[in-house]
Design a protein that fits this description.
The protein is α+β, with helices and mostly antiparallel strands and 220 residues long. Helices cover 20% and strands 26% of the residues.
């Protein structure tokens, strides 16, 4: 093989190597894109949810598929605190045995300043158009849980002194929301006084349904 032929082979090998490096770089940039694109007028949210582990007790039955996060609905409110729309999040559930976790993606209107995150809620009876432009109290305080399923709820609101959009403010706080369940755990202390011994207790006169979000009659 003459000298010119060797030089041409070296040049071809170096060119192929450069193309391979560029290809890898492009794939890495796409995979690690920290700001996913959203439709015009919307912002994209990527977040994780965490639910503390729940003790198993003898109580009202929950469907076998009701324990985990099956679906997630985002209730969006604007800068005036008025309801604009609901958005379904794409759910990728995960778990490690100590609690319930999940990864979620959703697009919300860019004027969204407050979001209520609601998991496992039956939305078939919720007439969105009837609640548009109503306050959080008028929307969330009236929404009851679905029978037979464990409901999880969380709320995120933007800092009023921060003009950044909600996706940026969620990112600043780690893109993590902590959800609470609508089923309460009740315990009783056994007084040690020598006169009474508590062997158990029973809850009675309980409501068949409850609201999905905590509500205070004065503070909202």
């Amino acid at each position: 093989m003459d000298k010119n032929m060797i030089q041409r082979w070296i040049h071809a090998i170096m060119t192929l190597a450069a193309i391979a490096v560029l290809s890898v770089s492009c794939r890495e940039d796409e995979w690690f894109d920290p700001s996913p694109a959203a439709r015009e007028g919307y912002v994209a949210l990527r977040f994780s949810a965490d639910v503390p582990a729940m003790e198993k007790v003898a109580t009202r039955a929950v469907d076998p598929d009701g324990g985990g996060v099956q679906d997630m609905t985002l209730f969006c409110f604007d800068s005036y605190g008025l309801f604009t729309t609901t958005v379904e999040a794409k759910v990728t559930p995960t778990g490690n045995g100590a609690g319930l976790t999940g990864n979620f993606e959703a697009e919300v209107p860019e004027n969204t300043r407050t979001v209520h995150f609601l998991a496992n809620q039956n939305m078939s009876e919720f007439k969105e158009d009837k609640f548009r432009n109503k306050s959080e109290a008028e929307v969330m305080a009236l929404l009851e849980g679905s029978s037979g399923r464990m409901i999880y709820w969380a709320r995120f609101t933007c800092d009023p002194d921060n003009d950044s959009k909600i996706d940026a403010q969620m990112a600043d706080k780690g893109n993590m929301i902590k959800m609470i369940r609508i089923h309460a755990q009740v315990s009783i202390d056994n007084p040690i006084n020598g006169w009474i011994e508590v062997t158990g207790f029973v809850a009675y006169n309980t409501n068949a349904f409850g609201t999905v979000a905590p509500y205070h009659p004065v503070k909202g």
